[in-house]
Structures are given as structure tokens and as C-alpha cells.
Amino acid sequence: MTSIQDYVPVTGEDVIDRLYEIARPLRGMKVVHVNSTHVGGGVAEILSKLVPLQKDLGLDVRWEVIRGEERFFQVTKSFHNGLQGIPVPLGDTLLKVYEEVGAQNAERLRSILEAADIVIIHDPQPLPLLRSCPNRKGKWIWRCHIDLSHPYRPVWKYLRNFVMEYDASIFSLADFAQPLPQTQYLMQPSIDPLSQKNMDLTQEEVHAVKLQFGLDPDRPIMLQVSRFDRFKDPLGVLKAYRLVKSFVPSLQLILAGGGATDDPEGEEVLTDVRNGAGTDKDIHVLLFPPYSHLIINALQRGADVVVQKSLKEGFGLTVTEALWKGKPVIGGDAGGIRLQVVNYQTGFLVKTPEGAALRARYLLRHPDKALKMGRIAKELVRQNFLLTRNLQEYLSILVALIYGDQERIELQLKSAP
Amino acid sequence: MFANAAIEPFVVKECALLTIATGKRARNLKEITDHLLTIHQGSIYHHFWGRLLRPRFADPEYNNDFAEWVHSALQDDILAERLSIMNPEAFADLESLRQGLLEIMEQRLDEIEMVAWAKRDMQFHFVRSQIIVFDTGERIEGPEYLVEALPKLSVRSVFYHFIDARHRRPEMMDDFRSWLRSYGDDYDDLCSQLASVDPYFGSLVELRTQLTNLFVNYFRSVS
Asked: How do residues A356-405 score in pLDDT, each as one tens digit?
């Protein structure tokens, strides 16, 4: 299991010292995280890292997972889509299932939740738990990991009633915050530098993965890693590749994405992409199961040009991952990509396939400049988008909740251990 | 020069800034002006000073969020230039700074025929900061020891002592100058040099280097 000290070589000792310092007033505090799954998905991935690290810093942390039948998860999947702006049906029967499952889980978890100093509820699935814990003694936070910038109003109107009862909420970007009565903290997502997806790899390992997927290691590679989703504009990437190919005939393209079998639209997009790729043997459309972290890592490290040509994007952690590997990114001028990509510093923002092609040609023509931008990119991620920063913000929010809504909180010097 | 036992050592602190959404957004100059009338003072602090702790690159074009947004979202470079030249330290407090901003924006509203609109995803989001300060336990016994201590300070310490202090202290000066003043007029020259450092362009890392060089050169010249 990863320990907090394992991060010292990556972040420096001062960052870890600061974590201990902020955690000091929180030692022994009972904190409970609640979400809807132990494995799979970004939230479970974050919690599997955060919970042991918070324990390492002296907090008494538990991670609880709510249980539900298929119908419950159908409802919450609809909520998820609705919160991201897709119109979904909302019948009374479905809402009753949601509330009943919430109450059943509360029966099972009530004693733990009511005794906790802090309860952090992740995403909409466990939201109703608060109502079933009337004797709660701690503060309750709703952590929303979803892009809530333009929700389907009926879904948000229903869920907002639950959210309003919380003591605080946390959103990933200011754009996602909603009119709510409680304090809304902003906390950008992060990547774990020690995870399989981001850990250092040897050149031999990268080389082996290239060979495994039929790539020529001696020719340049252009890469986009993302779900097969229209908002990720894979067809735009194909167009950009073809525009570059006329100048750099040796170019190879990889479009790598997660499994789309449970997503009818994903399959449709994947079919379009495969049709769009045609018979070009230098285009590699790769579909990976969700645990292919080492392969994705190697492909990102082995790419000469990394693209994330999204038309809409929440934050864009694949951009962060590539930047961490010292790769400048050609990113769509959208959402959280703008926070990470700055022209001529960490990559280029583009609006069209033509723009992406132009910038790709520039990076291929100027590998020295790409290298320099890559160094800035890695430093940007080190300073701002690593898990340790996320951890520090979580701890700071807990401190803020204890001390109240004052603008300035002064922690006293640590007492002798 | 030696440490003066009668004077308290310099207490090195660090800070973490929490960012809080206010829920207020603006898509044009009229809206941002209206919100500015009532926005939490912590939001004005955040958009002038807090930005220094956010992801940034060398040589920002404008040195506060209002100017940056007016330039990038409204493409009103006349207003962006007027806002960017504002020196927040020239205002007695955040309330005066608010009035200064309003004055410039309202004047611009009088000048223009039509207000420009930002795209939906380029709105100005008013956010505010909550600052958590903690004592690192480190003490600097005399000014000459800052030569060695400064390069080791975290950027959050640099922010707290050199940027935040200007807003925090009634005399609106950084913590280093305030501490040096306790030595009477011994370090007047050093204080003048510190006063001339413009912290609003460049990163906190660059600022730390600049301050280190300033202390190194000063103590080399007087030794």
C-alpha cells in the first residue's frame, strides 16, 4: 500500500511536511467517505488512494459503499446523465426506488454516519443518506465529481432538495457551481504520480508496448486517449492526422479509448471512427478494458504528439496525464483544458482539425521546443495537479469546517509530540 | 551586523488558500459592474492576489483577473489596460479598491455604445478565498540569516510574507520590511530596495529568486 512518505521524491519534503501540519488539528477525527462502488470509475480510483493517505496522516477514516439493486443504479445513471445536461425521464416510481434504497442503506450505516465528525458523500447516489440520519453530530459535505455546468433542470431541481441540507459542497470548477445556500468549495481533480497510469517507465517498456500494438517505433506517433464520444471529436483528430500526413508521410495515429460496449452511442462513434480510418494501416484504433493503465502510460510516453481535441470537456485528466509525462498537448479550446494548456508554454489550444494539424506539424518540426514545453508542462502538473495537492485541499476544507466561515484561519504551532 | 537579542525573531509561516464559489457570474461589463457593487471583499482579494497561487506561467499579460477577462472574453483592450495598471497597494483597503474598480468600469460603460458579451463558457466567475495560515516552526534570528533562509522558503511562505502581508498589515507592507523596521533605521536602505520589488509580474518562484538576490547583494555590499 502506498504511504505518504512515498510521495517525497516526487513532490519534495516540504509539501509532505505541510500535509502533516494541516492534518495536525484533524488527528483522530472520524471521517467517513461514502460512494457507490469500491472498484471501477474515477471516484473509486481517487478514494482508493486518498483514504489510506488520510489514515497515514492520523485521521480515523472509513470508506463505505452503498448497496442497491439494478433498478437503483439505472435511476442513478439517469441522474448522472441528467446532471450533465442530457434530458432523461423522471417518473415517481423511479424516484421512490432512489429514496427507498437511500433509506435502506441508512439503516445499515446509521450508527457510523451519525457518530462521524465529517461525512463526505460522493456524487448523487448516496445523497439521501443525510435525511435518514437525524441524530448526526458531524458536518456533511457533498463532493460532486460531475460536470454540473448545464444540468437538465428537472433532475437538478429534484436533487437540489437533498444537496441544500448539506453543510458544504465541493465542485471541480467554478463553472459547475450552482446557486446553493451552503459554502461551495472548488477543488480541481488530480492525478496520482505513483499509479500505474503515471509511474515512470523505462524506454524498453515503452518500446515493447509499441511493438505489441504493431507500431513502428522509428516513426512519429500522434495519439489521442479518450472515450469514443462525439464531444472528444475523434473524427476531427482523423482529419487533423490526414492533414499532417501529407507533410509527414511517416506519421502514425493512435486513437485509444476505454470499452464502449455498455454505451450505445459509444459503439456508434467507434464504428464511425473505424469507417473513417478506412484502410490506412498507420491508423490504430485501440479499444482497451478499464484496467489497461500501463499500456496507456506507455503509449502516452511513446507519442511524439499528444492531442485532446475535445469540443466539450469537464477537466481533461488525460491532458494532465500527458503533461505529467513531459508531453505538450494540442487541446480543444474547451472547459478545463484551458486551465492546463497555454500556447507555446504547455501546448496549444485549437478550435479546428486544421488548427490541430498546424500545431502538430510545428511540434514535429521543432522537437527541441516540444521538449522545452514538456518540461514546463511537467512542472505545471507537479505544482498544481498531483494527488498530494488534492489531499491538502481536502484537509484544508475539513479545517475550515471546524473553524467556521472566517476568512482567515490561523493554526497554532504544533505542540510537542 | 549581528542578531539583536531584544528583537523577536522572524516567524516563518505558510498558507493554503481555499477557493470558494460565490455563485455570481458575469457575461458583460454591466453585469460584472453590478456584481462588484456587492461582492464579498474576499473575492476582490482573490482576483488581485489569490491568482498568484494558481497555475500560471512567466510573463502574464495582465496582472489581475478583471483585466485578463476583459481582454480575453470581451476583447476590450482599452479597459483591460486601464484595469491592469491599477496598483492595489495604492488603495487603503479592499473597499477602496472596489470603488477604484467601479470607477474605471463605470467610466468605460459611459464611453461605449454597446456592451460586448462573453461566450457562455467564457463567463467571469466571482470566487473568493479562505486562507489557512500555519506556523512552520522555523525562526530567523537576524536579517542576515535571511540570505540562507529565503531560497529554502516555499512559494506559499513567499506569498504569505510578501504578498498577503500587504493586504493584511495596516501599514500595507510586506512582513520582511515590517520586521526590519524593528531594528530602527539600520536597514532603511534594504527596506527601500524591498519596497521597489514589483511582485505582480512573473511567478512566485521568480519572486523568491529576486528577493534572495536582493538580500545576497545587500549583505555582500555591507560586509
From this structure: 999 999 999 999 999 999 999 998 999 889 999 999 999 999 999 988 87
Q: Shortest Cα distance from A148 to chain B (angstroms)?
A: 13
Q: What CA–CA distance (Å, rounded) separates A306 from A214?
A: 19
Domain range A4-190+386-403, its CATH number among 3.40.50.2000, 3.30.930.10, 1.10.275.10, 3.30.420.10? 3.40.50.2000
With beta carbons less than 8 A apart as the criterion, state whether B52 and B161 touch.
no
Contact state of A396 with B137 under an 8 Å Cβ cutoff: no
> Could you read off the pLDDT of A318-341 as tens digits, one per residue?
999 999 999 999 999 988 898 899
Using the beta-carbon criterion (under 8 Å), do A412 and B133 form an inter-chain contact? no
Are the Cβ atoms of A396 and B18 closer than 8 angstroms? yes
Ranges of each domain in chain B: 16-127, 137-222
Distance from C-alpha of A106 to C-alpha of A104, rounded to nearest angstrom: 5
The complex's ipTM works out to: 0.86
CATH 2.50.20.10 fits A203-384, yes or no: no
CA distance B69 to chain A (A): 13
Q: For Cα atoms A22, A188, A392, give the angle at the middle one, nearest 5 degrees.
A: 10
Size of interface A-B (CB pairs under 8 A): 91
pTM over the 0.95 mark: no
CB contact under 8 A, A175 and B123: yes
